[in-house]
Design a protein that fits this description.
Elements lengths: L2 H16 L12 E9 L11 E12 L2 E4 L7 E8 L6 E9 L4 E5 L3 H4 L16 E8 L2 E15 L8 E7 L10 E4 L2 E10 L2 E6 H13 L11 E4 L3 H6 L9 E5 L15 E5 L2 E2 L5 E4 L3 E4 L13 E8 L2 E8 L21 E4 L2 E5 L2 H4 L6 H4 L2 H4 L14 E6 L14 E6 L2 E2 L3 H7 L8 E6 L7 E5 L3 H12 L5 E2 L1
Antiparallel strand pairs: 1-2, 1-4, 2-3, 3-6, 4-5, 5-6, 7-8, 7-10, 8-9, 9-12, 10-11, 11-12, 13-14, 14-15, 15-16, 15-19, 17-18, 19-20, 21-22, 21-28, 22-23, 23-24, 24-25, 24-26, 26-27
């Protein structure tokens, strides 16, 4: 091998090693590691309470204050902090978290942890790239890598469904989405939340600053959303039919939200022309002075939170008017199939071996990362459609623990409960109450929504309690119900 080739090889090896060697960086004293042990939802055995430990990143942003994303924290059982990428772990506690904004604050009472740490600075403005830097602790070393600007977009958060502005970056890195900071010129531009291939989602620092400021001031009412649905106003014939001449523009309302007063909320066939003074184009977008063209959904949270008033200028028939629309809070409990259920372990009820659970998205996610592909369609359907009688929640027969009382029903599963003994069932509490009485003939009559062959099921009322007790003992359940 000649000398030139040898030198080239040495340089290549050196550069490759330098990318993972400890970086002498100002971020070493601001970026910390968080270990979260949290409970995991067991979709098919809800009486189990397994736990999972994950590690993510946090930023020191003030005295005794670490900022991170809220992922895995709502059901945490233990939180610990580590500085310097290695060494001692310090017991910590979560002082605040919010699912819709996907933000959380953590602290520890150990003075030794805070020694030598200094707050990071969140950028007041987040501009387009072309490039940023991503930093993370990896194998005890601080790694800094370049990432490319992708776009600003509007979408739902990882935990919540309230739309807000997000930054997308492209990175040839794996294992991202654990609250790694995106930085430039000594300032934090955002925290990563998820990755899909090369594309990584980021919470922009401007969004983070506004939520934190409201939280500290005690005025944060949560994120909101526009609860009406709409379609782009790109069809000139449709706009003409609705009374709007001229260039195509605006967003056509398809369905009203919870507020049905036409003086307070958009109604079907209204054309939304502007929101808070921002003109809406035929794609349903507006021109944001900070981020460029964004979907109008962002205006629910751009300068507002839940409960604030947004001015909507719209066309209704031959009349143009402006209404004061109060932005509703984004609450999981308002969804027919809640996307998250926090604050309590998974609920269930076992009756004669029949296992019932509320229909929630955490249950559907029990089918794995590709649950949208593999979870039963007849259950996913209710994420996009109301129940036939507009009930607020649903209960599902999720399985059968075989016993003499349920012979012939062992394969019954994944069907939505409609009525029990003539009573409409929306919650497990409704089911428990319905089982206190029986149908004529001394049987409990379970009726199900249309969707599969099983339409009704009968169990002997006189022996149900005894059979339930037998099932609990035989299968080692902690209890027959957890409501």
């Amino acid at each position: 091998m000649n000398l030139f080739r040898l030198l080239v090889r040495v340089v290549v090896v050196f550069l490759a090693a330098a990318s993972v060697l400890p970086a002498q960086s100002e971020w070493e004293n601001s970026l910390v590691t968080i270990e979260v042990t949290s409970k995991v939802y067991d979709a098919f055995q809800p009486w189990n309470d397994p736990t999972r430990a994950v590690r993510k990143h946090g930023l020191v942003i003030g005295p005794g204050e670490v900022l991170t994303t809220a992922q895995y924290l709502p059901t945490h059982t233990l939180v610990r902090l580590q500085k310097g990428g290695r060494g001692r772990w310090y017991d910590a506690r979560v002082t605040w978290w919010d699912a819709q904004s996907n933000l959380a604050l953590i602290t520890t009472d150990a003075p030794a942890f805070w020694a030598g740490l200094r707050p990071a600075s969140l950028a007041e403005n987040v501009s387009r790239g072309p490039e940023f830097e991503l930093i993370r602790w990896r194998d005890g070393n601080l790694e800094e890598r370049r990432v490319e600007f992708g776009q600003f977009t509007v979408g739902e958060g990882v935990l919540g469904f309230a739309p807000h502005v997000q930054l997308e970056v492209a990175a040839d890195l794996s294992g991202l989405g654990w609250a790694e900071p995106i930085v430039r010129e000594g300032r934090v531009l955002g925290l990563t939340t998820h990755s899909n291939g090369r594309v990584c989602g980021v919470l922009p620092a401007t969004f983070i600053r506004r939520v934190l400021a409201a939280h500290r001031a005690g005025t944060f009412a949560g994120l909101g959303y526009f609860d009406f649905t709409w379609q782009p106003g790109g069809n000139p014939e449709l706009l003409k039919e609705l009374g709007l001449d001229g260039p195509t523009r605006g967003a056509v309302v398809n369905q009203a939200g919870r507020q049905t007063d036409p003086e307070k909320a958009p109604q079907p066939r209204d054309i939304i022309l502007a929101v808070d003074g921002f003109e809406v184009d035929s794609e349903g977008d507006y021109l944001d002075p900070d981020f460029g063209h964004l979907m109008l959904e962002n205006l629910a949270n751009r300068a507002h939170f839940a409960g604030d008033t947004v001015k909507l200028r719209l066309r209704r028939g031959a009349e143009e008017r402006t209404i004061d629309y109060v932005v509703p809070a984004a609450r999981f409990a308002d969804e027919l199939v809640p996307r998250e259920v926090f604050g309590a372990p998974p609920a269930y009820l076992v009756a004669g071996g029949l296992v019932f659970q509320p229909l929630t998205q955490p249950f559907l996610r029990g089918w794995g990362d590709e649950w949208r592909r593999y979870a039963p369609f007849r259950l996913q359907y209710y994420q996009y459609s109301d129940a036939p009688d507009r009930r607020d929640s649903l209960v599902v027969l999720t399985g059968v623990l075989p016993d003499a009382i349920n012979l012939g029903y062992q394969d019954a599963a994944m069907t939505v409960l409609d009525r029990v003994n003539g009573r409409v069932i929306a919650t497990l509490a409704d089911l428990a109450e319905a089982l206190k009485t029986s149908s004529p003939g001394g049987v409990h009559r379970f009726e199900f929504m249309r969707g599969r062959d099983l339409q009704r099921l009968l169990l002997d009322a006189a022996t149900l309690d005894e059979a339930t007790k037998r099932v609990v003992e035989h299968y080692g359940l902690p209890a027959a119900a957890r409501l």
